[in-house]
Amino acid sequence: MSRQRQILPFLAKNGIGEIAEDVFVNITLYRVPASLVREFALKVCVHHPGGISEAVQELMKNAIKE
Predict the structure, then answer these.
(1) Per-residue confidence at 9, pLDDT binned at 50, 70, 90?
(2) What is the pLDDT of residues 17-65, one digit of tens each?
């Protein structure tokens, strides 16, 4: 049985809408062209020792700041 869930349940604690900081999620991307992933890895991930996950986290944090 898959333990995958929608992301929304991870965002709210007690239905109040507070961000649950202590929960980590795995994200699966669908239909992303291999050429895009390759270019992202060559241009962005090369600066992140943690790889794609670290690079995506930084992009998300930067987008939120803006």
Answers:
(1) low
(2) 555 566 777 888 889 999 999 999 888 888 888 888 888 889 999 999 9
| pLDDT for the residue numbered 1 | 42
Residues near 20 by beta carbon (within 8 Å), at least 6 away in sequence: 10, 11, 12, 13
- Helices 52-65 and 34-43 pack at an angle, to 10 degrees, of 80
Domain boundaries, the chain: 8-65
> Which neighbouring-strand residues pair with 18?
13
Is residue 10 a contact partner of residue 25, using CB atoms and an 8 Å limit? yes
Residue entry with tokens 């965002």:
11
Reported as type and span, the H/E element at residue 61 is: helix 52-65
Counting Cα atoms < 13 Å in the Cβ hemisphere of 56 gives 10
